[in-house]
Specification:
Helix content: 10-25%
Strand content: 35-45%
Order of helices and strands: EEEEEH
Radius of gyration: 13 Å
Shape: globular
């Protein structure tokens, strides 16, 4: 994932409109490196991070009561399977 994306999820609190923002690092070579950290927010309210291992298999959610384990698992699955649109430009990171 290069740029942030929106994601809608039905939770125990109702429909939530999340923004998933990848934390990418610019390497000295000019390439972007995915750190495996994805910040979750709803509007201006932070909802914690989902952090993957280097193989994008195991993940952890550090939000406190924002999402249940099952809800965080759904978001983690979306992140894991997400494909950037053709022509996504990391130089236009938002």
């Amino acid at each position: 994932m290069i740029n942030k994306v929106s994601y809608k999820i039905n939770t125990t609190d109702g429909l939530r409109h999340l923004t998933i923002t990848p934390v990418n690092t610019l390497l000295p070579t000019g390439d972007y490196f995915s750190t495996g950290v994805y910040k979750l927010s709803e509007g201006v309210v932070g909802m914690g991070d989902i952090t993957f291992d280097e193989d994008m298999i195991e993940w952890d959610y550090d939000g406190i009561g924002e999402l249940t384990y099952e809800e965080a698992e759904e978001v983690a699955g979306f992140i894991k399977n997400y494909k950037d649109p053709e022509g996504a430009d990391p130089n236009l990171l938002t």
